């Protein structure tokens, strides 16, 4: 578990708020978070002090959100696997199995608590909602299993069902976050056309179509260069589109037609026209 994320995030949040007061609050929070490292075990958070840290929010960080959801999925899957081991009828009563449940449970507690510190914005809100639903199910599954262990009664079939459902939700959340991230990337400005790379692409394409040195090759190169010039001069505002919509079209066309600049240019023209017609 990457617990440094929690401490660093809290530090950044406090430092940006109000210098003098935030410094004092940060000291209170940092002092209340106690890292334990029992011999042979990973670092865990003292659950008695997490309540203070929860009052500090980390805000929205898409990379951190993806990492934390991944941690929740990993530990929830591990919990479900441990529950499945009890089908042999003896694992539940064995100390090594219970010790592993304790270790996974502490890591899962930490991941779930960290998820609560994060907020979501824009297209990430839906994915975050799916993740928190899975987190709630995972926490309930862990609570039921711990209660069964405390009472030494192997009655926790609901824990198996809840953990399995939690894994499904967290997998869906992870996929939704990946889709949101791809959408963000598509809206980023495409890199400027590299003349050297453009020459390589058009030469390879035209040589494959006509053979180097032929009249067809020369005409092909001229068409490709005209397409490059047209795309270099094209902008979102000049095309009548907002910047994000234009970037999505340009990036998608670059991805779909990496080896034919004429087709790339035609793709942009067609989709810009279609987008404007829908506005």
Describe this structure in words.
The protein is an all-alpha fold and 279 residues long. The protein has 2 domains: 57-187, Four Helix Bundle (Hemerythrin (Met), subunit A); 195-278, no CATH class. It is built from 12 helices and 2 strands, in the order ααββαααααααααα. A two-stranded antiparallel sheet has the order 1-2. Mean pLDDT is 83; it is low at 6-55.
Please specify the SSE layout and strand pairing.
Blueprint: H1 4-17, H2 19-32, E1 35-36, E2 44-45, H3 50-54, H4 62-85, H5 95-116, H6 125-151, H7 157-187, H8 195-210, H9 215-233, H10 236-239, H11 243-256, H12 261-278
Antiparallel strand pairs: 1-2
Helicity range? over 70%
What's the CATH topology name of the largest domain?
Answer: Four Helix Bundle (Hemerythrin (Met), subunit A)
Shape: elongated
The overall strand count is 2
SS element count, helices = 12
Q: What percentage of amino acids are in beta strands?
A: under 5%
In brief:
This protein has 279 residues and is an all-alpha fold. The protein contains 12 helices and 2 strands. The chain folds into 2 domains: 131 residues, Four Helix Bundle (Hemerythrin (Met), subunit A) (Up-down Bundle), CATH 1.20.120; 84 residues, no CATH class.
Task: Give the key terms.
2 domains; single chain; elongated; 2 strands; 279 residues; two-stranded antiparallel sheet; 12 helices; Four Helix Bundle (Hemerythrin (Met), subunit A); mainly alpha
């Amino acid at each position: 578990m990457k617990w440094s994320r929690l401490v660093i995030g809290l530090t950044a949040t406090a430092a940006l708020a109000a210098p003098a007061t935030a410094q004092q609050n940060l000291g209170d929070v940092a002092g209340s978070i106690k890292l334990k490292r029992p011999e042979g075990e990973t670092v865990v958070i003292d659950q008695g002090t997490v309540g203070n840290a929860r009052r500090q929010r980390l805000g929205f960080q898409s990379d951190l959100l993806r990492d934390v959801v991944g941690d929740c999925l990993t530990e929830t899957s591990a919990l479900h696997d441990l529950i499945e081991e009890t089908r042999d009828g003896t694992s539940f009563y064995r100390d090594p199995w219970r010790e592993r449940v304790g270790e996974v449970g502490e890591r899962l507690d930490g991941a779930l608590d960290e998820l609560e510190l994060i907020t979501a914005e824009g297209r990430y809100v839906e994915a975050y909602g799916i993740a928190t639903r899975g987190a709630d199910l995972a926490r309930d599954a862990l609570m039921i299993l711990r209660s069964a262990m405390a009472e030494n009664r192997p009655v926790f079939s609901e824990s198996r069902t809840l953990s399995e459902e939690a894994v499904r939700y967290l997998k869906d959340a992870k996929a939704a976050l990946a889709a949101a991230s791809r959408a963000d990337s598509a809206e980023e400005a495409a890199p400027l056309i590299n003349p050297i790379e453009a020459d390589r692409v058009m030469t390879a394409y035209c040589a494959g179509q006509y053979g180097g040195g032929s009249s067809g090759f020369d005409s092909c190169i001229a068409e490709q260069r005209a397409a490059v010039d047209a795309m270099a001069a094209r902008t979102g505002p000049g095309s009548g589109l907002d910047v994000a919509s234009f970037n999505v079209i340009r990036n998608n066309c670059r991805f779909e037609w990496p080896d034919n600049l004429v087709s790339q240019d035609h793709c942009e023209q067609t989709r810009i026209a279609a987008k404007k017609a829908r506005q």
